[in-house]
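Re: that chain you flagged

S.,

Sorry for the slow reply, it's been a week of failed gels. I finally had a moment to sit down with the sequence you sent. For the record, here it is as I used it:
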Amino acid sequence: QVQLVESGGGLVQPGGSLRLSCAASGFTLDYYAIGWFRQAPGKEREGVSCISSSDGSTYYADSVKGRFTISRDNAKNTVYLQMNSLKPEDTAVYYCATDCSGSGGSWGQGTQVTVSS
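Prediction finished late last night. Pasting the structure tokens below so you have them in one place:
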């Protein structure tokens, strides 16, 4: 069974950090570009970051550039999103997907990130 599972979300104060994990089962992640997306209440889903399958090149949305870092550990079949200097506007459900366009691929169930004092 092909499955992606996100974890690592939670409640954090502004300025804090979290590391999200996207673990794959039933297939090998390193053959896929992996994207992180988020959706806040009442807002459209937006792409946050992406890492390629070939050369490990990365993409970041302007809103997270310099604060978030995407990486992959093929031995653990997992992709990470390190989130530093978190802001209240980062509050959302975060999803990973085997697609960076947001229009296809397999998706996880999401993990809630809440940034609040």
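What I noticed first: The longest strand covers residues 18-25.

Talk soon,
D.
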